[in-house]
Amino acid sequence: MKSPVSVTVNGKTTTANVEPRFLLVHLLRDVLGLTGTHIGCDTSQCGACTVFVNGRSAKSCTMLAVQADGAEITTIEGLASDGKFDPVQEEFWNEHGLQCGFCTPGMIMSVKDLLNRNPDPSEEEIRHGIDGNMCRCTGYQNIVKAVQAAAKA
Amino acid sequence: MAVSRMIGASVRRKEDPRLITGAGTYVDDIRRVDMAYLEFARSPYAHARIISIDVTAARALEGVIDVFIFEDIKDSAGPLPVDAAPAEDMLKPQRFALASGKVRTLGDPVAAVVADDRYVARDAAELVDVVYEPLAAVVDVEAATEEGSPLIWEDLGTNVAFRTLAGTDGIDDALAKADNVFSFRYVNQRLIPNPMETRGVVVEPEAGGGFTMWSSTQIPHMLKDRLAEGLGIPANQVRVIAPEVGGGFGCKLNVYAEEFVTALAALRNNVPVKWIEDRSEGFLATTHGRGQVNYIDVGVNDDGKVLALKTKIFADLGAYYQILTPAVPTLSQAMMTGPYDIPDGHSELIAVFTNKSPTDAYRGAGRPEATYFVERALDQTARKLDMDPSEIRRINLIRADKYPYVTPTGVEYDSAEHGTALDMAMEMIEYKDFRATQAASLNEGRYLGIGMSSYTEICGFGPSDDVGIACWESGTVKVDRSGKVTVLTGASPHGQGQETSFAQIVADDLGVPFDDVIVLHGDTSIIPYGVGTFGSRATVVGGTALRMSTDKLKEKARLIASHLLEAAPGDIVYEDGAVHVRGAPSQRKTIAEIASEAHEFQNVPRGAGIEPGFEATSLFDPDKYTFPFGTHIATVEVDVETGKVRLTRYVAVDDCGKVINPMLVDGQRHGGIVQGIGQALFEAAVYDENGQLLSGTLMDYAIPIASELVWMETDRTETPTPNNPLGIKGIGEAGTIAAAPAIVNAVVDALKPLGIDDINMPLSPQNVWHAIQAVANGAQEPS
Questions:
Q1: How far does CA A45 lie from the centroid of its chain?
Q2: Rounded to a whole number, what is the distance in Å from the CA of B187 to chain A's nearest CA?
């Protein structure tokens, strides 16, 4: 029943044998040990599991691992480079854009995607841009501030 | 060299580097060798008799390690704990970790399945074959009290769990003395807390006996003790670790069946076992909040002075008590007169079992309900007297010179300047200008509204003997021989940022660099004592415990220095992280030098009553409560064609006493306000007549998303409490308490021209549209 899946995650290529029903998020977390990507719901609402698949944000709980065969994936663990935080990470820290931190990795990945598509978003565009990511702690206001600051960085 | 003050500084959080990189370790990130996975077979009925359970097929599935039901564990685990008993004659039904005989709510755990793989465990749980005899469900909290209602606990003979009375005698006479008595009914709907991390548990048996549990909990120490008691294992063989916890909001302030079952699964099979709650499972298995119906009579003179309030509270407990379930609605009684100087008040609480998930603490816990019924009733009263809502508040707010103020329910408020908060909020929102704009807009067919909420709430619970549960907190401060500081706190924060704010308190008081302080928490084997983080208490109580410990260390430093510097202890001054002889600043030892001397213990004289080492532990049990307060004002525009409410402005003036880190305080306020907005506009646990939860996933239950919200404009006043040395009052719940009534008042204000007096929350487009149609069809009398 299991079939081989090959993915390149944060620049490193791995092959695993998985059941067809096996979720991409479980491949990342349980097989590759990349637990920065979180699972917050079972209906694709919360966005805690957001990663980059072939350069665009995707909810990894809503993809089967086999669908990601051959894909280039970036997770939160792959964002900082040369020991330096990505500007989005840095501004989440500066602006107190997180509290419990559970939604944060997925939120940051969505914000990265938003800024890739729209480097200078308005407040309204930011709010719509993160509508697929739920945060229960911050009320989103400091996240909006962090995105505004990251856009300027 | 003066060290800059850390208290009051908006420093970046120490927690964040690990959280923004995905390096934080939450429960589901824990992996142990040969770890198995646990899943539950749960009841699809809200109320049913269990006729038979057949686990043969589940057990036969390849990869399944164990399947067990109540009969298998009845000798291994006692009834689940309840820590609150507000009435002596409170009914005390016993509940066990797995259902026995009956299921009483949707999602009751009936069987536990352990397998070597998550997916297999889920498959096996679906193979558990249970035959049920469905029973009529008790869903409505008021109908549950009526004669002939089906009974959830047949042997108790009633669904009424307890009644409590609070307040002054002779309330009907007091009401009769007022020029008017107005009566209102409000529904405070059930909410589902939904922290972004669901619950989860990992248990690893220890070779020498006992076990280690990682649980997504707000109360690791309380959990440890309850597990030990319930499982009959010595408490010193149980270690509980709250790792990174992804939010709690009260729903992780509990001891849950799943924690017992996961421990039993690990012990039965001698393997590490992980259970991670699904979101949809969490909608059923984790506590809900609110769930009250409130009747309120307002005795008010024609000039707006309120003389008396009488309330009757129906509290929907759900099918069982969780640890604080019975206590939560009693807080609505205690706080029933809010920030108002009302001479007479009386409340009857009727606490009722229903076939729904247990309610328990959810951000605000009893105070949002009280604030809602008082603030709505004042608005409706003002309308009947043809007064502005701000005016009736100004007339009735407790004046600053009346503090300390004792309410009719016997609560002693500490300090407040309510009028200042109201004035500031009205100024910020440009209240008068808005009223003019509102009138002009109505001529264009636009329905604008403004609503306010003045509140006070109760935090920093204590003393323990008054509250009826342990209300102290511990704080240890250790300075190592290099002068670096390690802080241990029994408060177990889960997003509030106490690794930062507690480091600020300690760095400030000891005069050491903030970067030299680290804060540890959440592991019962590292932290000697603890209670937890809830009720806006962590900084009020846990911060004070730390302050007591730094005081002890400073005293010890003076004592050691008096020997090293050959001066009387009274002549040693502690300043900026060093001690020196009064009048001789060059005769000086830094705290690192003192700590080193205390550790080396070569130059400290024997017989001087000084122990080696440089650390102090303190436990603080508050003598009195604290009372944050403030005023929030919201403006809205309602589309009367669709019923859609749009928030246009939101202003908050809060007072939480002295502030340690303004950035963190504002973060708490933002999050709190948005949870209040969630209750006002979006969220509801909707059940059908069979007790099926219709809003049982995040697809159906609308927690606020960014685009539905509005920029929150915040300001503060600062009225220190006299009840702790830091002067702090607590801020975690204020926003949630204040926000919902402000928004509902604004929407009802907007719809006043249509003759609408009240709409039940949430003010979803559907509910607002129906209210508008009802008035149009003559169902509701225009005021």
A1: 14
A2: 24
